[in-house]
Amino acid sequence: MTFACPSNLYESVNQSSKECRESSNIQLDQAGIDRFLTELTQESWDKHSVANGMSFPLRFETLEQEVNILSLIDILNTGHGFRKELHEDSDRGAFETIVFGIMSFHISSSPTNAEALAKITGWEVGEHFGITMQKDAPSELAHVTLSKPSIASKLAGQIQGVLNETGSILKKEKFETLGAFVIDAAKKANGSGEAFSRILINTFPAFQDATVIDSKNVYVFKKALLLASSLERRFAATESIFKFTDIQNSPIFADNVIPTMMVYLGILGLPETLKHTMQEGEATSVEESYRLRAAAIDGCREIVEVANKGRDGKKVGSVDFGAKGMLAVDLDVYLWRVAKEPRYRKVPRFACKDTIFF
Predict the structure, then answer these.
(1) In the 8-state DSSP scheme, what is residue 202?
(2) How confident is the model at residue 138, as a pLDDT?
(3) Hey, is 351 helix, strand or coil?
(4) Whether 13 contacts 297, CB under 8 Å
(5) What is residue 245's predicted lDDT score, i.e. its pLDDT?
(6) What gap in Å lies between CA 11 and CA 128, rounded to an integer?
(7) What is the largest CA-CA distance in the chain?
(8) What's the pLDDT score for residue 53?
């Protein structure tokens, strides 16, 4: 069955997320929002709300080559559920593992065209991304160990699946690389990040980040929205096709970090049925993760609205967000980067290993 992305993408993400949060009985604490905005400082906002658009100190021969690398990192931006295993193996987190793998392809001049992606094996993924595929485990026989698939090998399989599928689709669509497809999509989008994201979502299952909960569609589309924002930040000043004029209306890119931070900061209040998700070592189901991510999208929408409109005609907080006001995409970057500070590093984050979407 062909996936059909809603034409009013941004509105659909915001509205479906609000409905999902409400049906999940996740509370949006207005006092928590006011406290967050009141305690927010100009120095902290200016420092953490600016992203570099995934700019790397590497040499690229063409625009397509760089866009291809950035797009591969984005479509593979997953693996948060394997954070513990990845740190134990290589001292890299999920995102760092994905970047390491794609950089390995580039630095070693390994092909990342459609044909190569369609044929890549799990073992090749393990080698490039530094994922330990096998672990020695004790057997019933004395002094004998058995080699068994590691927990992280499941992530390698997920990465392989996305790359194989993406390569096959690119071949079918007659594009040599994902970068070539993305550039073509940007041209067709005619300055709209929403239209650009919609093209990606309608073409590649790895971007079709949506589900049905309580008989209603829930749209998140983290990776498609993130790629539009990243390319706009990286290239808008030099490449007109990536000057997406509607990015300021984009929802956030909901993963596991943003909801965790919003619960910790007292902005989101979880019902008893979801409180276990924020406890160390507790597994989170796919459905539960969608409920949490949807709540974060709606919560950030509300924060942005209060920051820009105030309450009863009065501004909440003292931060100057500039002529455009606070944008959801900047709030996303802020919360994600602040979460990397030492004081928040040890806050337990919810984790789900059964997804390729975040």
Answers:
(1) H
(2) 73
(3) strand
(4) yes
(5) 96
(6) 39
(7) 75
(8) 66
CA distance 186 to 64: 12
**Number of other residues whose CB lies within 10 A of the CB of residue 59:** 8
Q: Give the phi and the psi of residue 145 in degrees, each rounded to 5.
A: -115, 155
Give 244-285 as a DSSP string.
Answer: -TTGGG------SHHHHHHHHTTSEE--TTTGGGGSTT-B--
Q: Assess contact for 5 and 201: CB atoms under 8 A.
A: yes
Interval 201-209 mean pLDDT: 98
Determine contact, residues 299/267, Cβ cutoff 8 Å. Answer: yes
DSSP label of 147? E
**Residue 149 identity (one-letter amino acid):** P
- Residue 91 CA neighbour count, 13 Å, CB half: 0
Element (H, E) at 87: helix 83-90
Q: Helix (H, G, I), strand (E, B), or coil: what is residue 311?
A: strand
DSSP-assigned letters across all residues of 154-222: HHHHHHHHHHHHHHHHHHHHT-SSHHHHHHHHHHHHTT-HHHHHHHHHHH-GGG--EEEETTEEEE--H
Return the structure tokens found at 268: 């989101």
Q: E-strand spans in the chain?
A: 27-28, 134-138, 145-149, 210-213, 216-219, 268-269
**From CA 53, how far away is CA 165, in angstroms rounded?**
26
What's the pTM? 0.94
What is the spatial distance between Cα 188 and Cα 114, in angstroms, rounded to a whole number?
Answer: 21
Beta bridge partners of 135: 148
**Contact by Cβ (8 Å): 130, 101:** yes
